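Tutorial handout. Part one gives the primary structure; part two gives the three-dimensional structure as tokens.
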Amino acid sequence: MDRALAHVRALGTPGEVPPASITVSFHPDRLLADGLTVAEHLVAEGVYRSQFETRISNGGLTAFPGGDRDVWERRMFGGAYAGVTVGRPVYGALNLAGHPDGGSPRFGSCHLRLDPVVSARATFSHGDSVTEPAVVGTADTFGGIWAALLAEVAATGRALGLAAASPREWVAALAEPRTVAGRALDDYVEAQVHGGLELAGAVQAVVADPSFAGTPTGALLSRLAPRLEYHPGFVLAPAEFPPDLRTETTPRLAAELASRFGVDRIHAEVVGRAAQAVVRDPASWSAFGPAAEVLQELKYVWHILVLRGRPF
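Part two.
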């Protein structure tokens, strides 16, 4: 951990990270290799593990020796984790805008809201590490990232899913409370938490999709932290999935979910049921391709829910 932090600190620019929580997004109902769900593992172990250990991901599945994630982590952290599987950094987002759906909802319907003190052992990047971003920093060398965000607002009128007429107005808007989803699917400051992530002491609250309320998954989530909260959620009717936002298959798959599970609205809990069904009985989903392709399409279903869904 210390070697990784020192490497990134040297690449950053002096400046304190603004007060904000890191959010770590996850789908609680996805299955691991032993047949248990993410939520079940979190309850049993009290530890949030990296993809190198879980072998599942809501992004790319490249966390193995020589894989893309291994390669870029070597570069980002100066080789600090070379040859290591256990204890790799955990990925989240610095939720500067205070979005109720978290800083990076692309990666899960629920998120852990970490105590701000965790930022002291985190590194940050302006953009996702898959792009090998050049602007990085730590809690005390955050200046370059902050400057990049202000430049982004000046050039485009928005950053972190928050629009503003000027950088000054954008900074003022960061402090305003938010009750609507930010939908920041691709627009976040990535946070890499080093030194492990034990839930006790590090997690202030679990913030869940409301579709899990009253379900066994919701009961598990309530055991993970002192507080269980709900964000607004996302729902869409199958016919509302556009064919041009991800792939032509995505709307067909959404319609299939509605038919198989007897629902008229697609939401996170339905997508999770489908993901489990694909893993347990891939042959029954073969009309949509091999299991890996169907699971990828289900990720697209989730993306569209985040981008276009109405509150639950």
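Part three, for discussion. Residues 2-230 form one domain. The chain is about 35% helix and 15% strand.
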